[in-house]
């Protein structure tokens, strides 16, 4: 059922996702548009690469918060039809997914930054946190392990995305089929948005990120 609450929350989800954290922080504190350097993406990974961890960490945390907050706007739907929707229903879960995906689209195509955004990994993770906490924590563990072993953020993101699908399918099996379908979509989206990274990985040209090394931006 479409209500004024559901329409409003979808619009808010897109606007939240559209907040170009990397662009605004880069321009406000470093006088740099991160999209003009590194990979050209307005995301946490490129911010780490271009401006270092002092800029990258806040960007990453805010982008995660964008996805988490947007997904939880689903609780507005309960205001519109409390008798038809509760936080444990299939309808509610599907609406959470719709809001989270809307926020991710906002991050990929932000209205506040000329529709030139990032790859949506951090915002996707915020969405996963809201939808399935256990699977999200499993993804974090796998992401950190792969990153420490390889120092490739892109590879860590790809492996973590498949970990989520495995998590909701086998480790923490869910009863709502759309959550599994969403996991499949995450894998496809990550592969599509990381095509150039995959090519560089295969040819040994992908940039590594050392979170423990102080970054001095030369831009």
Automatic annotation (TrEMBL):
EC class, as a word, reads: transferase
What topology does the record note for this protein and the membrane? Multi-pass membrane protein
**What is this protein's function?**
Catalyzes the transfer of an acyl group from acyl-phosphate (acyl-PO(4)) to glycerol-3-phosphate (G3P) to form lysophosphatidic acid (LPA). This enzyme utilizes acyl-phosphate as fatty acyl donor, but not acyl-CoA or acyl-ACP.
| Pathway where it operates | Lipid metabolism; phospholipid metabolism
The transmembrane segments are 12-30, 97-115, 127-150, 162-192
Organism per entry: Mucilaginibacter mali
Q: What is its EC number?
A: 2.3.1.275
Could you tell me what this protein is called?
Glycerol-3-phosphate acyltransferase
A GO BP term here is: phospholipid biosynthetic process
| Domain of life per record | Bacteria
Task: Give compartment(s).
Answer: Cell membrane
A Gene Ontology cellular component where this protein is annotated is: plasma membrane
SMART domains named among the record's database cross-references: G3P_acyltransf
Give the signal peptide, or none: none
Q: Which reaction does it catalyse?
A: an acyl phosphate + sn-glycerol 3-phosphate = a 1-acyl-sn-glycero-3-phosphate + phosphate
Gene Ontology molecular functions: acyl-phosphate glycerol-3-phosphate acyltransferase activity
The entry's family comment says: Belongs to the PlsY family.
Q: Which UniProt keywords apply?
A: Acyltransferase, Cell membrane, Lipid biosynthesis, Lipid metabolism, Membrane, Phospholipid biosynthesis, Phospholipid metabolism, Transferase, Transmembrane, Transmembrane helix
What is the protein's quaternary organization? Probably interacts with PlsX.
Which taxonomic lineage is given here? Bacteria, Pseudomonadati, Bacteroidota, Sphingobacteriia, Sphingobacteriales
């Amino acid at each position: 059922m479409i209500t004024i609450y559901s329409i409003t929350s979808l619009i808010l989800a897109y606007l939240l996702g559209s907040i170009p954290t990397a662009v605004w922080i880069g321009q406000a504190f470093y006088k740099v548009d991160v999209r003009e350097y590194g990979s050209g993406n307005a995301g946490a990974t490129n911010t780490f690469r271009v401006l270092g961890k002092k800029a990258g960490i806040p960007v990453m945390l805010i982008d995660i918060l964008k996805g988490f907050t947007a997904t939880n706007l689903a609780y507005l739907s309960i205001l519109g039809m409390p008798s038809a929707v509760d936080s444990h229903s299939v309808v509610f879960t599907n609406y959470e997914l719709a809001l989270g995906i809307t926020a991710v689209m906002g991050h990929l195509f932000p209205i506040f930054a000329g529709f030139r955004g990032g790859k949506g990994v951090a915002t996707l993770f915020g969405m996963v946190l809201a939808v399935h906490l256990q699977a999200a924590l499993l993804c974090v563990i796998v992401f950190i392990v792969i990153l420490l072993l390889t120092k490739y953020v892109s590879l860590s993101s790809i492996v973590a995305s498949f970990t989520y699908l495995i998590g909701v399918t086998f480790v923490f099996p869910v009863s709502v089929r759309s959550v599994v379908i969403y996991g499949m979509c995450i894998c496809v989206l990550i592969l599509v948005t990381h095509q150039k990274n995959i090519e560089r990985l295969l040819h040994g040209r992908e940039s590594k990120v050392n979170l423990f090394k102080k970054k001095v931006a030369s831009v």
